[in-house]
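Weekend entry, working from home. Most of the wet-lab plans are on hold until the incubator is repaired, so I used the time to fold the two sequences that have been sitting in the queue since the last round of cloning. Logging both here for the record. First:
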Amino acid sequence: MEGNAGKRVVVIGAVIVGASLAYHLAGKCANVILVEAEGIASGVTGSSFAWINISHSGPDPIAQLRSAATQDYRRLQTELPGLKVRWTGSLSYSASLDRVLQASGNQPSATLVSRLQILGLEPNLKNPPQHALYEAEEGALDAVEATHALIAGAQNHSAKVLTHTRVLGFSTQNAKVTGVETVTGIIDADIVVLAAGTGITKLTEKLKMPLPIGASAAILIRYKTQPNLVNTIISSPQMEVRQSTDGTLLAAEDYLGDSLENQPVEIALRTARRTQANSCRWHPHHRLSTRHRRSVRLRNASWRHSGGDCGPSCQRGNSRQQGILCP
């Protein structure tokens, strides 16, 4: 981002990636305008599991990038009072010790912990495994809250934010992008950054520049539970859960299709029963059954990208890619 001082930069997409770009570019003295067709943190960002992790189940060519991104979140906490990360650490385990040990070879920073140590970290686990991998440096955040904090920081650096402003096209001159055409007029630009998720495809089509970005569905489920049920981020064959600061239990599940048995509420109920049976001691008052569906708060299928390379922000239900159009 060096050398951008004084340049007119338009960032399209007020999601967490677009907000971060706006904040950091504005901090480098670029003249930033953030444009969003809907509201701030709409779309995928609003339904993100938001796990900040450095672990990976297989060989990881971007391990250094993951680690650097984690350190950047720690830096952002010192710069932005509204950005809060819960550095709870994560517990990951599989059905067999061999798989756990295999995964540990790809996670050099993780610690192999025993069943007794697991219970020390997660005393509410019903059936803790014999071994798990504990990654102390991992955490999670509220992606919507973080997006607003980043945008507030960008505005403190004189960035402008235009919400509910749809992009119609681009101005070009000599095969170079010179501006963004919106419903309210043309915004002149030296650099245009696309951070609109799967919406990038439609934007690049306006320039006759196809950019295939696939999407696969995921479901984020929110449960009302008693507080202090889960202390870390738990990832296992049975569940992927964490608890937010307000006590809400969040679970991430794959989207299995449009059949009745795979609708979000049905998946939420199955996940709750599986979590109760295999792992967490839920208070009976909070046990979920068909007649208790109103106690399940969830979002519909949220979209994560399957096309292209994904970096540390590509957590379940929350991945973004960005393109840069420079003259």
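Second, folded right after the first finished:
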Amino acid sequence: MRNVRRKDTGTRLTLTEFKMLVREQFFMLLLDQEGALAAIPKLLPDNASERHAAFTAIREVLSASAAISGELAKRLKRVAELFGVDANEVSNNASNVAPFDPKAKAS
């Protein structure tokens, strides 16, 4: 999330404002999931490369700690459709998951 916030060139929210925004969006999803998802395409920029970059950022956050699979992969595919991007193309080009090595030691 820090990397996503660092890359953002728009108006900067404070951490408290950002957390409040995320919390509000979470509750909107709880109250009306289909309505919230249906609104996504209307909120996105017309520029395809900007939509692709935003979706890539979402994918990077989701893949930061584990591989995307199962139910999460299904949901991400639906979001890709809403963004008008090919989830398979993005998944082939971006993976932040390093194999876990239980013997690795911090330096």
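Plan for Monday: verify the second prediction. Residues 15-44 form one domain.
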